[in-house]
Design goal:
Blueprint lengths: L16 H17 L4 H18 L5 H12 L2 H15 L2
Helix pairs in contact: 2-3, 2-4
Length: 91
């Protein structure tokens, strides 16, 4: 019998996509304030994406879509997804 995927309800406070993307945008701005380059932020975004996709329960349909795309993406495609999210939040 296959064990059910266990996940953390760490994102339980985020009930909508706008709040979630707002938190991500704040994180980007905070990284810049501490002197991180955009490239470093994007590289870290891939690591965060790996963690979220494997450990955190999605709170919204959009988060589920991101997990679904992340799970079938190659490492290069994951970098592309992280870059797209970065661009979307950086406008």
């Amino acid at each position: 019998m296959k064990e059910a995927k266990k996940c953390i309800d760490a994102m339980d406070y985020v009930k909508d996509w706008a709040t979630w993307t707002g938190h991500l945008k704040t994180a980007i701005n905070q990284g810049r304030k501490f002197g991180m380059s955009d490239e470093t932020i994007r590289r870290l975004s891939v690591k965060v994406g790996d963690f979220l996709a494997n450990r955190v329960c999605p709170a919204t349909p959009e988060e589920q879509l991101m997990i679904d795309m992340w799970s079938v993406a190659t490492p290069d495609e994951r970098k592309t997804l992280a870059t797209i999210m970065f661009k979307m939040l950086d406008k």
